[in-house]
Specification:
8-stranded mixed beta sheet; 39% strand; 6-stranded parallel beta sheet; 2% helix; single chain; mainly beta
């Protein structure tokens, strides 16, 4: 793709496995492409002969300048370079050259073959590239990531693995361990260095518990390559969000200050819920409270495609918010009871000064209550209106003054019913 401004290249499968283009073949070749998004793609290059110079690139970016608002993104891609067993051929999984101003987040990049002079990823001569939550794995003794000292502006929660023992080159130094790199650069304080041990290399599926929930929230890559929603607090490292049976949990017994809560089991192949004895196979579970605090006994069982099965149970309590009708009308000489719901054991403070769970009102006005039940504090307000009372003043008249007219008109009155006499 040459000289494109505003490129959207998303959710594709690209593989360069032929010799039709023998001069440094690329899977995805971006040349002077600006303001771009390259997300959710499966990209590979495993050509083994005919290449000019003996190298190939699944993703090659040259002179590609992104945008800042919104930020350009290269995220959630599964990128594989090299044919296993090939040692005389060169591969770069990602080659970013004179390119910058973009996020490189939640990608899985693997070099499966090639000689020692090449790397899983290379970021050179660019700037302002944010690198987070990626898994870089090199199985042929190269660097997992090679970056000069200014192209990568921030690097957090990445995985760097190389069978060569030197996983990272940054600035002008080669680092033999993650700890040396952390100390030398200040980057990736929460990074890891582990073999992804792919269950399916071409799909970038792993069951390595070290990568589970090891990412940081980027507020950008909300869905993984398979359109599964990511955790907003601790996403997985790599392109695929997955469930580890070893660490699977509902989070223990929990209390939610809400009228409704949705619970997710994560991206499993099958999910079975049991709630107070009632079953469901929906991917998520929505619990709805009543007027009082309600506790649900929740059991969930999951089956993953690659990583096995797991189950967990928890008691989930919903404490509803204070609830009053936003508006209420009462007739003259009538009253109404206001009750925000809750438990008698809670505390309640009304704008009238009352401290009871409910109050009886017989006047118009605005009434507000604050309730505290099981540590859940909420407030509700209602505006009460009241009909005007009908007043007819008793009158004594002589027969000569008849007929007598009486007026019972009130504000907003619509119909009137009289006893005795006649009415218009």
């Amino acid at each position: 793709m040459y000289y494109v401004d505003g490129l959207e290249f998303n959710n594709n499968v690209v593989d360069n496995d032929s010799n039709l283009y023998p001069y440094g073949p690329r899977g995805v070749y971006c040349y002077y492409v600006d303001d771009f998004n390259i997300n959710g793609n499966y990209i590979g290059s495993d050509i083994t002969s005919g290449s000019y110079g003996g190298y190939a690139y699944p993703l090659y970016m040259y002179q590609c300048i992104g945008s800042n608002n919104p930020r350009s993104s290269v995220s959630n891609n599964c990128i594989n370079a090299g044919a296993e067993g090939t040692t005389s051929y060169g591969y770069y999984g990602v080659y970013s050259y004179f390119s910058g101003l973009y996020n490189f987040h939640n990608n899985s990049v693997t070099r499966r073959g090639g000689n020692n002079g090449y790397y899983t990823s290379q970021f050179r001569a660019g700037g302002l590239v944010s690198v987070k939550n990626n898994s870089f794995a090199d199985y042929y003794n190269g660097y997992a990531r090679y970056a000069d000292g200014f192209t990568v502006s921030e690097s957090e929660n990445n995985n760097f693995y190389s069978t060569g023992g030197t996983p990272i080159y940054h600035g002008s130094s080669a680092y033999a361990s993650l700890e040396e790199y952390q100390a030398g650069t200040g980057f990736d304080a929460d990074g890891v260095s582990t073999d992804p041990a792919w269950e399916d290399t071409l799909a970038c599926v792993t069951c390595n518990d070290t990568l589970d929930n090891a990412g940081t929230n980027t507020s950008v890559a909300m869905y993984d390559i398979d359109s599964n929603m990511r955790s907003m607090t601790a996403p997985d490292i790599g392109a695929v969000e997955w469930v580890s049976p070893a660490s699977f949990t509902l989070g223990g017994d929990s209390t939610y200050c809400a009228d409704e809560v949705t619970i997710e089991a994560g991206p499993a192949q099958s999910v079975t819920w049991s709630v107070n004895g009632n079953s469901s196979t929906a991917p998520t579970l929505t619990l709805t409270g009543g007027s009082e605090a309600t506790t649900y006994n929740v059991l969930v069982s999951i089956q993953t495609e690659y990583c096995g099965s797991a189950s967990d149970n928890a008691l989930i309590t919903l404490v509803p918010n204070a609830n009053l009708d936003s508006a209420l009308h009462i007739c003259a000489d009538e009253n109404a009871t206001l009750n925000p719901g809750g438990l008698t054991s809670g505390s309640y403070t009304w704008s009238t000064g009352a401290m009871t769970q409910s109050i009886v009102i017989d006047e118009p006005g605005t009434y507000t209550v604050t309730k505290d039940v099981m540590g859940c504090i909420s407030t509700a307000t209602t505006a009460v209106t009241q009909s005007e009372a009908v007043e007819i003043i008793g009158t004594e008249v002589c027969s000569d003054d008849l007929p007598l007219s009486l007026d019972a008109t009130i504000t907003n009155g619509t119909t009137y019913a009289w006893s005795g006499g006649s009415a218009p």
